[in-house]
Amino acid sequence: xxxxxxxxxxxxxxxxxxxxxxxxxxxxxxxxxxxxxxxxxxxxxxxxxxxxxxxxxxxxxxxxxxxxxxxxxxxxxxxxxxxxxxxxxxxxxxxxxxxxxxxxxxxxxxxxxxxxxxxxxxxxxxxxxxxxxxxxxxxxxxxxxxxxxxxx
Length: 152
Description:
single chain
């Protein structure tokens, strides 16, 4: 965000924040077009958790231009399956670090998620050196389970 200062009539300064580019975003999975003509599609179940922390389902090629607008430093991947090569290439070309925690059984409703993996994932997520960070699993729903379990 760019800041400008404007002189007011009484001699004081007024700070005005102006966005460098305008991007309309919705979290319903719709695509949006920026004024420059770029198309942005958020990953499934994308949302902001807190400042600098986002969550979603598994991103694919269609989501890469959207993810670039977030200026991510890190991605936390919660599933045990190997990260696809085309996603790894995207991370490398954008300087994004991947943290994988491989939580097994995350699709079952009453499976207890290992506490040590939750703790390690949360350490990475709250470390501001890793922000902005995207936390994701296959569908963007495991993060709810982890949050609920971690809060108890």
